[in-house]
């Protein structure tokens, strides 16, 4: 009986390995199709003033509801995209969609708020990032102060000439750069001083714990670091009124979370007519 159960175990691990591999292959294959057919949809989540709850900008977040695979989390498909060297193409797709949406808002004489786009670490290391953004801005006549970028701490670790050049030239064009998921990576604090960014985003895992004593101290520490190096601070994943009140008390002024707004399809948020409808109306 023993031998049997151990062989069952092997079979179990084997099939688990196979299904993980199969999933990876499925996501890779469908991701190419999804990108080509614009099945990846840009959503926007509001960034708000925590005191007035007024919307002061947005973050672009991708949503993928695949006809074959069903909904796939960006955590999964962005990782796969990085492995397939498709991340740059996905980032460009989001940047282009965001710029085109801002253009249409301006054409409709709507007031436009800045939109933050998440940039994958490898792409922030790419020499072509700045030129691509400048070209889009030029082509669509969208001022660059409407664009913000978010990068994770990983970029600090890989801090090299390309990253430095991208940071310097984009910030010179009024593109604000935030460090996403701050405190969850392995970067040394000494980088913060050298780092020329505009804001730190306090990761949701810290906001989740802000009701407890230790959690409150950790968030205070991040806010103190931000203040020391003159960076704005943005709290992510605020879900309760209690969290909002504590964050305000600790001196955090900007936040995002389901308490205020979930991400919604970009055309709905900006009241833009969807492309399909435009074509049908013509
Ligand atoms: P992130 O940039 O840190 O985005 C914040 C995540 O927290 C988003 O998850 C958002 O939907 C979620 N969130 C916001 N408020 C709340 C809340 O109150 N409660 C809870 N439970 N969640 C909240 P999402 O959209 O699943 O994205 C996960 C990560 O995938 C992002 O983390 C980002 O790293 C990456 N990602 C998403 N869209 C893109 C994209 O367009 N490009 C790139 N490069 N990465 C993206
Ligand atoms: Mg982000
Ligand atoms: Mg984050
Ligand atoms: Mg995150």
TrEMBL record:
GO terms for molecular function: cyclic-guanylate-specific phosphodiesterase activity. It comes from the Bacteria. Signal peptide: none annotated. Residues 24-277 form the EAL domain. This is EAL domain, c-di-GMP-specific phosphodiesterase class I (Or its enzymatically inactive variant).
């Amino acid at each position: 009986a023993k031998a049997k159960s151990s062989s069952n175990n092997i079979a179990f691990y084997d099939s688990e390995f196979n299904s993980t591999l199969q999933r990876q292959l499925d996501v890779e294959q469908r991701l190419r199709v999804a990108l080509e057919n614009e099945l990846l949809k840009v959503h926007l989540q509001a960034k708000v003033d925590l005191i007035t709850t007024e919307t002061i900008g947005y973050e672009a977040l991708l949503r993928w509801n695949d006809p074959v695979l069903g909904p796939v989390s960006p955590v999964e498909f962005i990782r796969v995209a990085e492995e397939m060297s498709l991340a740059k193409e996905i980032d460009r797709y989001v940047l282009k969609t965001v710029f085109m949406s801002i253009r249409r808002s301006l054409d409709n004489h709507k007031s436009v708020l800045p939109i933050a786009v998440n940039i994958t670490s490898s792409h922030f290391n790419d020499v072509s990032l700045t030129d691509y953004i400048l070209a889009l801005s030029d082509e669509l006549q969208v001022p660059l102060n409407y664009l913000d970028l978010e990068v994770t701490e990983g970029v600090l670790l890989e801090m090299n000439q390309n990253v430095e050049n991208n940071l310097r030239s984009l910030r010179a064009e009024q593109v604000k750069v935030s460090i996403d998921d701050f405190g969850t990576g392995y970067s040394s604090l000494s980088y913060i001083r050298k780092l020329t960014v505009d804001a730190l985003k306090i990761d949701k895992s810290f906001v989740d714990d802000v009701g407890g004593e230790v959690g409150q101290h950790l968030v205070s520490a991040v806010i103190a670091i931000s203040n020391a190096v003159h960076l704005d601070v943005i709290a992510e994943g605020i879900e309760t009124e209690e969290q909002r009140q504590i964050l305000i008390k600790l001196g955090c002024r900007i936040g995002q979370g389901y308490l205020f707004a979930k991400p919604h399809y970009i055309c709905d948020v900006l009241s833009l007519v969807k492309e399909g409808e435009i074509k049908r109306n013509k």
